[in-house]
Write a structure and sequence with these properties.
Elements: E1 15-20, H1 33-44, E2 56-57, E3 60-61, H2 62-74, H3 102-113, H4 123-137, H5 167-177, H6 181-191, E4 196-198, E5 213-215, H7 225-231, H8 238-241, H9 249-254, H10 260-264, H11 268-283, E6 303-304, E7 312-318, H12 327-330, E8 331-333, E9 338-339, H13 344-348, E10 352-357, E11 370-376, E12 384-386, E13 393-394, E14 400-402, E15 408-414, E16 417-429, E17 434-441, E18 453-458, E19 460-461, E20 471-479, E21 484-491, E22 494-502, E23 510-514
Parallel strand pairs: 1-6, 15-23
Antiparallel strand pairs: 1-10, 2-3, 4-5, 7-8, 7-11, 9-10, 11-12, 11-13, 14-16, 15-16, 16-20, 17-18, 17-21, 19-20, 21-22
Helix pairs in contact: 2-3, 2-4, 6-11
Bound molecules: protoporphyrin IX containing FE and 2-acetamido-2-deoxy-beta-D-glucopyranose (NAG) (12 copies).
């Protein structure tokens, strides 16, 4: 199921995607905004664009920079008191020598630039997703994705391990972060298969000033070269063979169990499996008062099907009284299909899907209480009903909602002056006495911390749209870049809120005009 826009009267645009999948989506219950959004970001979001193919940047790679920042951000965790972890506190820790390296700022700018930070999906979730895309982009294993991290608003403790510290200090750092000495060896090997050490950042580790960055192994890929080159004693890893013995931290760590763990990681299958599960734990290391979603391992927004061009998919719905309306009024076949383009995660899982869009007209008086789908393969088999596990896709209130047909993105020009804003149009039960909208806009700052803006604006009666049935139209000008809305209406005896309306899941008309 694709992000189902809350629901839209007059023209309902509901989308249903069917794909050929390994597993079923059976356990997913709609609505679940966080899981739905996390699934969409993993399988259709923009983050893989900068990770696909393990692209180079400044003598390292973008994925190497993304993986390192995830570890450094997580490093504030203290298993003894449950504080710290992957919480984006790194945004407030960049001036520390532990976090030296232009990759840190570059990565945070990459993450903010995707503009996917949302009311329930913060920078910490994007850092985790970035690490997953980084590993996959360089040919490494899939790491299951859980979402729901909470962004810190201040720095955590300075607990990132540094190369000049001794083995006992490193073992204690990893214990504090929740990992055993054996897991420490593997985690460092899994991390140091990407990237390397920059001379300007660590001049005592990489002493030759002609070297910009000394890589940990000879391949940019996520592979076992870091292990095999170490064991063959051919490695150029500066944290193993650098001229200064004090900063040979990888050597001390890798050899700390007589090389037993490194020997086991020579097997590519074991390297894949070990790195995937340790990275999953690393990314899911969060303060103990934070709850993450169950891990996402498949695109459950989509229904399980074999490809079938003669398939028909029908949208059905019940009116506000819960009655199934006459077939002429309450069903709508999809008459077109769209390909779903998956991220590198979907590609590595060999998933394919087709999207079936609907454009249904819903009676504004009788309204809608829930909808569901019927899938007919037209091959003699029984049609299948997809109804959210029996409950249907329930629309819990129809008193206030965004009218996505009338809402417009406006670009107004007057000579060199231009103004961009969104003309939001809301339909509401005209019995209300007041209405407001809280708009969420991801940060457009050039530097961290990237904190979103939440502005609350009163809605005005919209003179350009006359009332329709029991509904009146209200409007407000909001930020062009707003992505999520909370609508609130009040009447004498109640307050109704429509939370987290996702403007990124709908196509709004663009209007170019003069000021
Ligand atoms: C004792 C533990 C560790 C020490 C002392 C250490 C040290 C370092 C140092 C000195 C650099 C060079 C950074 C720069 O030049 O800017 C580096 C890079 C890196 N580290 Fe670690 N590290 C440790 C553990 C880890 C772990 C557990 C990971 C797992 C994700 C990791 C991932 C990376 C990556 C991917 C890079 C390359 C960054 C790039 O090329 O831009 N490190 N590490
Ligand atoms: C490399 O780093 C410099 C700043 O040190 C930056 O201006 C440049 O754009 C970077 N190159 C790439 C490809 O990111
Ligand atoms: C590893 O190589 C270094 C030089 O590259 C050499 O000094 C050392 O003896 C070698 N160690 C082993 C165990 O072969
Ligand atoms: C080796 O590294 C340590 C820690 O960074 C530093 O204190 C020491 O001066 C370095 N030794 C040499 C010879 O550069
Ligand atoms: C572990 O392997 C390294 C690299 O080959 C070697 O220098 C070291 O002596 C080995 N340590 C043990 C205890 O075998
Ligand atoms: C490791 O994972 C990658 C990515 O899924 C895959 O291409 C590779 O074949 C795997 N290697 C082994 C030995 O499982
Ligand atoms: C996390 O889950 C536990 C157990 O279900 C619950 O008691 C707690 O309130 C939840 N915490 C948050 C912040 O949602
Ligand atoms: C689908 O239906 C809409 C309106 O019902 C129509 O405008 C459109 O042309 C149809 N598309 C196809 C591919 O038949
Ligand atoms: C939906 O159908 C209506 C007419 O029934 C048409 O005006 C509108 O353009 C269609 N919208 C889309 C997105 O196809
Ligand atoms: C819309 O629903 C109302 C109430 O059920 C009904 O009276 C009216 O005829 C319907 N309008 C259309 C165009 O079907
Ligand atoms: C929105 O902005 C336009 C253009 O500046 C203005 O004409 C209109 O009155 C504004 N609407 C509201 C509700 O503020
Ligand atoms: C939020 O409101 C302030 C004050 O009205 C305004 O200056 C600012 O541009 C708004 N920002 C966004 C992102 O809506
Ligand atoms: C609010 O109160 C009015 C009058 O008492 C009543 O008719 C109406 O049904 C109430 N609405 C809600 C949503 O409770």
């Amino acid at each position: 199921m694709k992000p189902l826009p809350q629901f839209l009267f007059a023209q309902a645009f509901i989308v249903c995607a069917l794909g050929r999948l390994v597993q079923s989506f059976s356990t997913f219950q709609w609505p679940n905004p966080l899981l739905n959004y996390a699934d969409r970001q993993l399988y259709e979001g923009p983050v893989d664009i900068l990770a696909e193919g393990c692209p180079p940047r400044n003598d390292s790679t973008i994925p190497a920079q993304w993986l390192r920042i995830a570890y450094h951000d997580m490093s504030t965790h203290n298993v003894d008191d449950g504080t710290g972890g992957l919480d984006a506190s790194i945004q407030y820790e960049l001036d520390r020598s532990q976090n030296v390296g232009e990759g840190m700022l570059a990565s945070l700018n990459d993450f903010n630039g995707f503009q996917i930070i949302s009311p329930f999906f913060g920078m910490a979730d994007v850092i985790a997703l970035g690490a997953i895309m980084a590993v996959a982009g360089c040919g490494g294993p899939f790491i299951p994705f859980s979402a729901g991290r909470v962004d810190a608003t201040e720095a955590g403790p300075p607990t990132v391990p540094e190369p000049q510290q001794d083995l006992a200090s490193h073992a204690e750092s990893f214990r504090r972060q929740g990992f055993t000495p054996t897991e420490m060896i593997a985690l460092v090997a899994c991390g140091h298969t990407l990237g390397g050490v920059r001379q300007v950042d660590f001049p005592l580790v990489v002493t030759d000033s002609a070297t910009v960055l000394q890589t940990f192994d000879t391949t940019p890929a996520f592979d076992t070269a870091v292990v095999s080159e170490y064991l063959q004693n051919t490695t150029q890893n500066p944290l193993v063979v650098g001229p200064n013995v004090t900063t040979r931290s990888d050597f001390r760590i890798f050899s700390s169990d007589g090389n037993a763990t490194m020997q086991s990681l020579l097997s590519p299958a074991n390297f894949n499996q070990t790195c995937s599960s340790l990275f999953e734990r690393m990314l899911n290391t969060v303060p103990s008062n934070v709850n993450l979603t169950d891990p996402i391992t498949e695109p459950f927004e989509y229904l399980v099907m074999n490809d079938n061009p003669s398939r028909t998919v029908t949208l059905l719905w019940a009116d506000r009284q819960g009655l199934f309306c006459p077939p002429s009024g309450c069903s709508q076949p999809s008459n077109s299909t769209e390909n779903v383009f998956f991220t590198i995660i979907g590609q590595m899982q060999e998933v394919t899907a087709t999207r079936y869009p609907f454009n249904a007209t819903i009676n504004a008086t009788s309204s809608i209480s829930k909808f569901w789908f019927e899938i007919n393969e037209n091959d003699g088999s029984e049609p299948i009903t997809v109804d959210n596990g029996g409950a249907g896709f329930v629309i819990d209130q129809d008193s206030v909602f965004v009218d996505v047909v009338r809402t417009e993105r406006i670009v107004a020009h007057s000579g060199p002056v231009s103004e961009e804003f969104m003309k939001l149009v809301v339909r509401e039960n005209s019995a209300s006495s007041g209405a407001s909208v809280a708009s969420f806009t991801p940060s457009l700052n050039a530097n961290p911390p990237f904190t979103p803006t939440i502005n609350t604006t009163d809605l005005q009666l919209d003179a350009s749209n006359p009332p329709d049935g029991k509904f009146a139209f209200f409007t407000a000008n909001i930020s062009f870049s707003a992505t999520f809305l909370d609508l609130t209406i009040s009447s004498a005896n109640s307050t109704i809120t429509q939370k987290n309306f996702d403007l990124t899941a709908v196509n709004l008309p663009f209007i170019f005009t003069s000021l």
